[in-house]
Every structure is written in structure tokens, then in C-alpha cells.
Amino acid sequence: MPETAHRWTRLGVIAGGGQLPLSVAEAERSGGHPPFVLQVDGFADADFSGFDTVSVPVTSIGRAQKHLKQAGCDAVCFAGVVKRPDLSALTGLDATSAMLLPAFLRAAKQGDDALLRVLLGSFENKGFRVVGADDVMQAATPDAGTLGTIEPSEDDIADARKAISIAHTIGALDVGQGAVVCRGLVLAVEAQEGTDAMLARVASLPEEIRGNGKARRGVLAKAPKPVQERRIDLPVVGVKTIEGAAAAGLAGIAVEAGGALLVDREATLRAADAAGLFLIAVSVDGE
User: Fold this and answer.
1) Which of 29, 100, 215, 246 pairs as cysteine with 275 (C-beta 3.0–4.6 A)?
2) CA-CA-CA-CA torsion sign (80, 82, 84, 88)
């Protein structure tokens, strides 16, 4: 990140599962601004060796905020997977978490986005600026076009557009961020199971309605929910996504231009090319 674009003193990366938190931390450090990494116990699974880091349970929001303040953080970035806990069964809450619990319980009835807004509001009320992973990893949100070396066919483009439209529709209901379409047939939509589990489900379907390694067909599309807070939980595509799409016999992956994150872009594109999958970014205006 250019020095002129840097708008915080120190970034705290609140790390859930997957490689995205590590990519965010590395991007911040590469710009000459070593971050502080706060790992969420039971979820963060990347190797943060070499970073200033601490681990806290999901039930200790106040403690997390205290660690971040002590580390000199004035901005935070939530990155990675943290599955929604059973709020009614949580124990061992610190004082801040206990005070927020009634708001969490009310918000949970409205969906994930409402729940996340309560969480973000708590950090903002403590003086933290909440920034998106895309604000830190500016090169990770692709512009419209073909991203790898594999070009989609006209049938693939039609599937991609339909899948993007479905992703927007279910996203408006705060259901999920992804869908799989094969020659116009909807094979799957994403809900709480996540993209990897959805792709595994597609791989278990009969081959006559999907592709295979010798004759790839179908497209996974990922797009942000129209209702969602974009500073958190943007759709993510990485090497694991490529592997899941390849195992499901798909021809490729489509994301909304400017509305998804490519984790380790070069490795992801190499994996897509090696698997024979296209990876495209679709402009919403061009649908």
C-alpha cells in the first residue's frame, strides 16, 4: 500500500480460519506497516510466525479490544472464517461480551449481516476504525475480465451470468454468497455450509448433470450480498476453491468485479490454469 494511502497508525488483524488473515497481514507488512494479529481461538489456523500476535476466545470481545489498544492499533480488519456460535449457550463471556449479548441475540434473528453490524459497532464505539480486507489488499479485488489463461465459452458465460444473478438473489435474503449452474441447471446454492462444502455436494451429484475432469461443465459464481457490510465477509476465492471446483467437474469460476477477494492471486491463477479452469470477473453492469 502506498504511504500516501495509509490512513491508520497500526492495523489489528482479527484472524479467523483460512489463509485470508495471513494474506491481509502480509500485505500490510509489505507496505512497511507491521500489523498486530489477534487470533480467534478455535478458528485461526494459519501460521503467523514472525508477527506480533495473541489469541483470545470468541467470548472475550472486551479482552480483544484491550489487547488491540495496548498494541497501538487504531484500525482493525476482520478476516477469515468464524462460524456463528450458539449464542444462547455461550459461557465464560467477559463483561463487554455479556453486555453485547442481548443485542447479538436480537440481531441474530435478522441474519448474519445484522449480527456483524453489532460486532463492528462495538469496535467503532471503542475508537477503532474498521477497514475491509480489500482496503488493505487493494490488488486482490479483480477488475472485469478473464483473470487466468483459460477463456470461457459462450455456454460458460451464460452459466456465469445466471449463477451471479442467483447469488445476488439469495444474498439479498442474507442466505449465502455463491451458486453453481451447469448449462442453465441450478446445481447448488450456498447457505451456512460454505463454499467448500457446497462444492463437495456438487461433486457428489450424478455426472450426467454436471461436468467431470474430461469434459468440464458448469460455473461457480460468488458475489457479495447486496445487504452486507462490505468491510467484512467479502467472498473469497483461493487455491482451495479452485481445487473444490475442479473436483466437482466445473469449467470455471466467476466473481463479481470489485466484489471478491483473490487470496494469493498468483498461486490461485496458477492453480486455475493447471486445472484447466477459467476464472473471470463479471461486471454487474455488464450482466
Assistant:
1) 246
2) negative
Torsion of CA 194, 195, 200, 204, to 10 degrees: 100
Cell of 113: 449481516
Phi, psi of 136 (to 5 degrees): -90, -45
Cβ neighbours, 10 Å, residue 191? 13
Q: What's at 186, amino acid-wise?
A: V
* pLDDT in 10s for each residue of the chain, 287 residues: 444 456 899 999 999 998 999 999 999 999 899 999 999 999 999 999 999 999 999 999 999 999 999 999 999 999 998 887 777 778 889 999 999 999 998 988 887 778 888 999 999 999 999 999 988 987 678 889 999 999 999 999 999 999 999 999 998 888 889 999 999 999 999 988 889 999 999 999 998 999 998 999 999 999 988 876 777 778 899 999 999 999 999 999 999 998 888 988 899 999 999 999 999 999 876 44
Q: How far apart are CA 58 and CA 41, in angstroms?
A: 7
165 neighbors 287 (Cβ within 8 angstroms): yes
What are 18's three cell numbers?
483460512
**Whole-number Cα distances in Å, 219 to 209, 215, 283:** 13, 13, 16
Pair 252, 214: CB distance under 8 Å: no
What domains can you pick out in the chain, each with its CATH number? 3-136 (3.40.50.20), 141-286 (3.40.140.80)
The candidate with the shortest Cα–Cα distance to 46, out of 69, 71, 80, is 80
